[in-house]
Structure formats: C-alpha cells, structure tokens
Write a structure and sequence with these properties.
single chain; alpha+beta; Thiol Ester Dehydrase, Chain A; 2 domains; 6-stranded antiparallel beta sheet; 37% strand; Thioestr_dom; PaaI family thioesterase; HotDog_dom_sf; hydrolase; acyl-CoA hydrolase activity
Length: 156
C-alpha cells in the first residue's frame, strides 16, 4: 500500500492526489470529532442559521462528481439527509437521538461549480416523529435539489 500511495503522489493526477487529501481529512475529522468518515470526505462543517434552521456549506470536489462532471445524486441525497440529521440531533436533549425513517429527494438541475449550501428546517416536530425540509443551492444561489425526511426520536 505504501508503494501505491507513493506512486499516486509522484505520478498521479491532481484529482487522484485530491482524493488522497480527502481521505486524510476524513480520518482527521473522525479522530477529532468522532464523526463518520463520509462527513470528512464531504467536508461537512455546519452552523445554525437560527433555532429552526441548520446549514452546511461544502466545496465540490472530484470525489463528488458523476460521469458527466455534475455532483452525483447520491451525494446530494447524503447532504440532504446529513443536514436534516444534524439539525434534529443538535436540538435534542442528550438522552435522545434521531434516525431517518423516510427520505424523498427531488433533483432540480445539475449541481456544478465550486460550492454547495444546504439548509434544513422543521416542518413538524412531534414527540416521536419529526418531519423536515431541506434545499441545496449552488454558488449562484440556484436550488439544485430539494428533499423531505421523517426522523424517529429514540432514547439512548
């Protein structure tokens, strides 16, 4: 494996080296924040915009591209799910957590450029089930995807 890594560093393309950098970022983030490796690959760093809205802004990297050069639909679905999951789990008491029970995604236009922004809000917040709404925007502030999700709240 070491030889293969050296070969990529010495002779690989810029994209291949960027993927290795993302892998290292993912490992660091997992160690530091106890987050999922995927969070590190996506560069997820979020913030509350207000008490009911959570947002991620992420760079578009070669890891995310499909064969046409747009962001892969699975990445957009993951970003939608992650934004909603972050909002609900950061707003629950420490003895509870929430997981996705349903996810619906509408792809509106190809996601291209250098950055994406996602924003999640609550549609309904019950004791056990929470319904949420998320939109993803490109750097021109054009909506590229929209999703809704249902989460179940559980005790740890």
């Amino acid at each position: 494996m070491i030889e293969e890594l050296k070969n990529i560093l010495d002779e690989g393309s810029d994209e291949e080296r960027q993927i290795l950098e993302l892998a290292l970022q993912s490992i660091r983030q997992k160690r530091e924040r106890k987050s999922a490796f995927l969070s590190g690959f996506l560069g997820l760093k979020g913030q509350f915009l207000d008490e009911r809205t959570y947002s991620f802004e992420i760079p578009i990297t070669p890891f995310m591209h499909n064969s046409t050069g747009a962001v892969h639909g699975g990445i957009l679905a993951t970003l939608i799910d992650s934004t909603m999951g972050s909002l609900i789990n950061r707003s629950l008491p420490e003895d509870k957590y929430a997981v996705t029970t349903e996810l619906k995604v509408n792809y509106l236009r190809p996601a291209k450029g250098t950055r994406l922004r996602s924003e999640a809000t609550f549609l309904h917040r019950g004791q056990t089930l929470v319904v949420m709404d998320t939109s993803i925007y490109d750097e021109r502030n054009k909506r590229v995807a929209h999703g809704t999700g249902t989460f179940i709240v559980l005790k740890k």
